[in-house]
Structure formats: structure tokens, C-alpha cells
Amino acid sequence: MNPVNYLYLSALLFTIGAAGVLVRRNAIIVFMCVELMLNACNLAFVTFSRIHGNLDGQIIAFFTMVVAAAEVVVGLAIILMIFRVRHSASVDDANLMKL
Amino acid sequence: MNGTDENPLDLLPEVLLAGCAVLALLLGCWLPRHRQWLAGALAVTGCAAGLVAAAVAAAGPTGTAFDASYAVDPVTSTGRIVILGGTLLVLLLSLTSPWLRAAPRETEFYVLVLLAAVGAVLLAGAQDLLLLAAGYLLASVPAYALAGFARDGRGTEAALKYYVLGALLGVLLLTGVTVLLAAGHGTGYPALRRELPDAPVGLVITGGLGVLAGVLFKSGGVPAHYWLPDAVQGSLAPVGAFLTTVPKIGALAAGYRLAAGPLADTGRWWPDLVAVVAVASMTLGNLAAFSQRDVRRLLAYSTISQVGYLLLPVAVAGRTALDQRALLFYLAGYAVTNLGAFAVVCALPRARHLADYRGLARERPALAVALVVCLLGLVGTPPTAVFLGKLAVFSAAFDAGYTWLAVVAAANTVASLFYYLRWIAPTVLGTAPPGDEDRDGDGGRVGNGNAGRAGADPLAGGHATGDATFAGGAVLVAYPAAAASVLLGLLGGPVLDLLAGPLAG
């Protein structure tokens, strides 16, 4: 199969994720959309690795997965904490501090 | 690209920091709560040992480590020394603050600070896009937790904003890395520098934009600055000092390395783009700072405008011989001056607004002198370090043919005097009855004498008994930092010469 098709899929995933981040209000959904973008990047990394015939992209994809897992842990903890404090997971409700 | 540079000792400062972080975490598991400060002492020791190792490495030869993925050159060495020095000052600020003493998660605080510092150092030395991405995440993830460390309403909100923006821009950074990998057939900077000039311009610009987004987020430049004022205002004061100083150093060094390396021969889009970002950063930071009344928020906007000046040498990187020295000297001067100002804020935990500083010069003259020195330093008044740094930065921009950039930056410097004077004037001229600094009721998140509840709620904290208006330990950082700011300015010539030298790789 032509590897370029994977790049199209990656671009599609990235766009869906970016649209979700910009449009949705719920922090968990925003967060999942960011993960979708991250995995679009991973798919592109692996595809470029295949196209170039070296392992650089694959190594980055592994790194990204591991570190993203750590980021997810901290992120979920923060969302949980703000839900406890504010009883809402909407990013629009976080407005204690403004100009 | 050979296997001869695989010497772990090249990374000794980083290894010391990471090792101390792990050790401190283990130590914290076994120590009783009232002896958790030992973990902080271990962290300080690790930083000091790392500083010595970095100084030794700085005197040694320039080179690369681990298949040319990590550079050991003047930029890395200066980055290490400034980051480790800054982390040391932040750790001292935290250790001497009453709010952290015997708090339930005291050890975790030191560990998170150390890990974020390791990430910042990695950013400064990375010569490979993979390492750049890893350093970004290592510097970011502990910082999110630090921002929400107090677990109150504001801290949590700050952490959420910081996290959402950081995760999004982290993905943009990774996208940039993907595109540069596609364009340059590799991730190492030396290989990219060979390949990128022949790659399609659209790909290179897209990739460069993505990476720039990540760098701007870590350095707090416009348009990725939205997290900064909230994170500094909402989190604890030492955390604010850390967030506005340490990651910036790593990010700006990383931006400089990118500009002088892989993106150097790809056309004029990079200097023009970064110049626009720099102007936006210094101007918007200044404009927003004019109307601030909360001192931490004012300092946060002041750091955004400082990043604007610091981006000048990143914009003109490789186009003049003065860029590297200017960036490194300004970074060192900025770090010490900014930490000095934050140390004064830490020393007066309940003075949150500009008006609360009225009459400080009468009550605590030495502290007021330190504050005035640091604030005038941030403006760029001779003979402080930032003055020399600004001079070097402006001459670098001028030398590279960006005269308009130097003129805009100079105009912004003059404009910035206004909001620093809004703080200095009540401090020096105002009079206030004794103990009036703390009349602002919502200020006391810290030091309420009840260690178990320290930092539990900013609104409830201020009503307990005890000397909550003055955290004396912070002056141990404020005075040396103010003195260092002046000293670095007086010794500018020899120091500037030390910072020259070719990049590795």
C-alpha cells in the first residue's frame, strides 16, 4: 500500500483533533482531542520512517508514547482537581483570574 | 557521526540533577514529615554539585556527546550554570518559606523542581529534534504539577490553563518535528543543516513554525503567553519565580541553537518571523503591565516583555558575531534580576498589590533597596547586568541590519520604566503605619504558622496568628541576587568575553 495514504489519515486525525480543541468546552474532551493530534503525529513519524528507510521516526514515536503517558497522568489529575474545586470540568468556567 | 563521543561524564551535571531527584524522592518516602527538609537539602547539594561540574565542563573543550545529539559548548555551559544557579535560588526560597515547611508533599516539591530543571538544561543542550521534544516534555510536565501545588482554586485554575496550552503547543512542537523530519530525512542538527536548504521551502517553514510554537510556549512569548500571568499569580511565589526564569533559559537557548544550526541557511523567513514575534512580545507585555495592580501579575507581564528583548538575538542568530554573547549575558542578567524581584515578593507574602508596598523603604530599608535595584535592573538602568545585556542585544540587532528592531526595543524599554516606577514610587516615597503591608486580607496563602494547613486556602490562610507578613528567609536570596545583578553589570566586559566561542557540531 502506498505509504502516502497513511499521511492523509494522519492529517485527517490531526484536523479532527485540532477542531475539537478549538470548539469543545469540556476539559476531558479537549484533552482527548490533544491526544488524537498526538497520535496523528505518531502515525506520521512511523510513516516517514518507512518512507526514508531509517529508524529515526520510529524511535521518536516510542518516546512520544511514553512521555505522553506521563503527561496524561498529570493532566487527568489536574482535571480531577479542578472538578473537585469548581464542580465543573468546563474550560470556560475557569475564570478566577482575569486582566 | 561516530561512536567515539559516548562518554557519560559529558552529561555529569544533568546526571547529578536527575540522580538527586530520584534519591530525594526515595528519601522523602522514609523521612518523617518534620524532617522532610533533608530532601530539600539534598536537592540544594545536587544543584551545587551540578554547578561545580558545569563550571569544570565550561573550562574544558567544546564537543558533542552521544552521536552528536547533545552539545557541550558555551551555550550549553552557560545554560547549565544559569539554570542550576536559578534552581538553587528557587530551592533556597522554598526552603526558607514557612508555607512549605513540613507540608504533606514537601519532598515532591523539591523533586519536581529538580526534574523541571533537568528538562530546561536538556532544552539548552539538545542538538537533535528528538532530544528537543523530550526536553520540552520533561520541562513541562513537572511544571504543571508545580503550578497547581497549593491545590486551591487559583492554583488549580492556573495549572489547568498551563496544562491545556502546554499540551496543545507540545503537539504543535511534535508536528514541527515530524515535518522537519520529513524535509530533512533525519533529526540531528548537523544532518538537518545539510539537508534543509535543499528541501521544499513550504515544508521547512511549516516545521519551523511548529518548533517555534513550542519554544515560545516554554519561554512565555506572545502569542503563547496566555498561561504565564495566571500561572504566576495563581501559584505559590517561589513557583512563579521558577516558571518565569528557569524554563525560559532552556527554551531561548534551544531557539538560538535551532536558528544558528538547522534553520540558518533556509532563507530570511526565520529572522523576519522571530523579529515580529519579539516586537509583539515586548509591546503587548508592556501594554498589559501598565494596568496591573497585583505585583506578581505585573512581574509576569514584565517577563513577557523581557522575552521580547531576549528573542532579538534568536532572530538575528548567525547573522552577526555578537548574537551569542548578547543572548547568554542577557539571560544570566535577567535570571538573577528577576529572581531577586521575586525573592522580595516571597519575603512579603501578604503584600500582593502595589499599594501594599507603600512605606517599605521606612520599615525595611534593606529589602526596599534590593527591590529597587532589581526593578531598575529589569528596566535596564546602568550599571546593572540587564543594562549591559540590553546594550549587547541592541547592538547585535543593529549589526545584523535590523535597525528598526533595535529602535522598537529601545522605545519599549523607555515605556517599561512607567510600570516599574508605579511600583518603586510607593515603596520609596509612600508612608504607612507599621504593619500596614498586610492589610490586604486575601494575601496570606503562606506562612500562617499552621504547617499542616499551609497553602490550603488563600482566603483562609491570612487570619491565623504568627509573623505572616515577613518571611525573613527570602532575604537570603533577595540581597545576593540584587548584589549579583549589579556585580555582573560591573564585571560585564570579562564575562562577555567568556561567553564567546563556537557552537559544537
TrEMBL record, chain A:
A GO CC term attached to the entry: NADH dehydrogenase complex
Biological processes, Gene Ontology terms: ATP synthesis coupled electron transport
InterPro entries according to UniProt: NADH_UbQ_OxRdtase_chain4L/K (IPR001133), NUOK/Mnh_C1-like (IPR039428)
Subcellular location: Cell membrane; Membrane
Major subcellular site: membrane
Record's bilayer topology term: Multi-pass membrane protein
Keyword ATP-binding: no
GO molecular function: NADH dehydrogenase (quinone) (non-electrogenic) activity; quinone binding
Domain of life where this protein originates: Bacteria
Function text: NDH-1 shuttles electrons from NADH, via FMN and iron-sulfur (Fe-S) centers, to quinones in the respiratory chain. The immediate electron acceptor for the enzyme in this species is believed to be a menaquinone. Couples the redox reaction to proton translocation (for every two electrons transferred, four hydrogen ions are translocated across the cytoplasmic membrane), and thus conserves the redox energy in a proton gradient.
The protein's name in its UniProt record: NADH-quinone oxidoreductase subunit K
Organism: Wenjunlia vitaminophila (Streptomyces vitaminophilus)
TrEMBL record, chain B:
InterPro entries hit by this protein: NADH-Q_OxRdtase_suN/2, ND/Mrp_TM
EC number: 7.1.1.-
Enzyme class (EC, first level): translocase
GO biological process: ATP synthesis coupled electron transport
Keywords carried by this UniProt record: Cell membrane, Membrane, NAD, Quinone, Translocase, Transmembrane, Transmembrane helix, Transport
Membrane topology label: Multi-pass membrane protein
Domain named NADH:quinone oxidoreductase/Mrp antiporter transmembrane: residues: 126-411
A single GO molecular function term of this UniProt record: quinone binding
Record family assignment: Belongs to the complex I subunit 2 family.
Cited function: NDH-1 shuttles electrons from NADH, via FMN and iron-sulfur (Fe-S) centers, to quinones in the respiratory chain. The immediate electron acceptor for the enzyme in this species is believed to be a menaquinone. Couples the redox reaction to proton translocation (for every two electrons transferred, four hydrogen ions are translocated across the cytoplasmic membrane), and thus conserves the redox energy in a proton gradient.
Descriptive protein name: NADH-quinone oxidoreductase subunit N
Source organism: Wenjunlia vitaminophila
Gene name in the database record: nuoN
